[in-house]
Amino acid sequence: MLIDVKVPVLAESVAEASLMNWRRKPGDAVKRGDALIDIETDKVTLEVAAPSDGVLREIVKADGASVQSEEVIAKIETGAGAGAAKPAARPAQVPEQQSLPVTPAPAAGEARLSPAVRALLEEHKLEPAGITPTGPGGRLTKEDVLNHVRRHKTAAQPKPAAKAAEPVRSAPPAEPAEGSRPEPGTTREPAAAPAAAASGRAEERVPMTRLRRRAAERLLAAQRENAILTTFNEVNMQPVMDLRNRYKKEFEEAHGVRLGFMSFFTKAAVGALKKFPIVNASVDGEDIVYHGYFDIGIAVSAPRGLVVPIVRDADLLSFAGIEAKIRELGEKSRDGKLTIEELTGGTFTITNGGVFGSLVSTPILNPPQSAILGMHKIQERPVAENGQVIIRPMMYLALSYDHRIIDGREAVQFLVTIKDQIEDPARLVLQV
To answer: I want to staple 375 with a disulfide (CB 3.0 to 4.6 A). Which of 30, 176, 198, 352 is the partner?
Structure first.
């Protein structure tokens, strides 16, 4: 009996998706729940699992194909006919290298190794930590291992000596210059044209992922359709840092999560949004939509690109609740497990470029939202207090806003409200 493997039901806002790399080949035995392939939409990456035990008889849609909701992408044979299953094909034999150099890789690549990958690692006496994984969720694939072996096999081969008496014009094509060779441990080998390889200026053309294309479209639309203006301020982080250092151990023991800065800024943003509802509003045609709830987007740099998961009803959450939710969404972002619902909506966004070392920036709006708060690196700077110059840990804040509905006065006062609450954390508790 043949069973169809279908694309999961996509959200109404998602017209189509792209297939990534098939993890099984026709003829492989599969069990119910086995991951077959990942499907990338412009918002999330979905995993398609085998609906039943059997044999993967046919792959209807190849890697990279565009698919729609509930479209058939493969067929699995179940029942008596599935007995003719063949084991997953082993990779081609590659001569063993005695001392292959390895490079460090993320710890995520060491988890969930398939039997084929384990066999290949044992065959070539390699450690998984020495190979950079490229599979979904940081998985190490057979191709990663084979590419690693192939690169070092090629690098170990001696170059042929040039013939002294042979004219230059009849000499064989020169080998690529050292600068054009991929470094050991890279995830792919550039397919450079011969002319580029000869000059040592290799190039590689890689299509954008669907998520990256969608992000590019939204960013361009935001700049084109909104009157974006940015206002800046700076905040003394010493009071929050002192409070955090004083209670972080007790906080973690009591709630099971670490006390970070994001909960303070989320609480401060909610307090400022309550004072200035227009910053929490959005434009719909010729109307202004005021939102009576506070769904705060937290920008996260995930492996596949920038995503903005939403902390729903942030005004109803405690500091611990906000920290727990942010940690949960961050883990899902790294593992590619975010759902469309967790990425949809949001009335205001916070982005923290400071984790990458950014000192100041002008964040771009996340439509249809009308404002976004940018946090930055904490840096000790001299400031004047009570007529004296004192060194304080300072952070620049940036608020980008849609000037069509938010006036400069409201934007500046909104940012000052956040500054006041961060510099006097008691205001966050008293809500003043």
So the answer is: 352
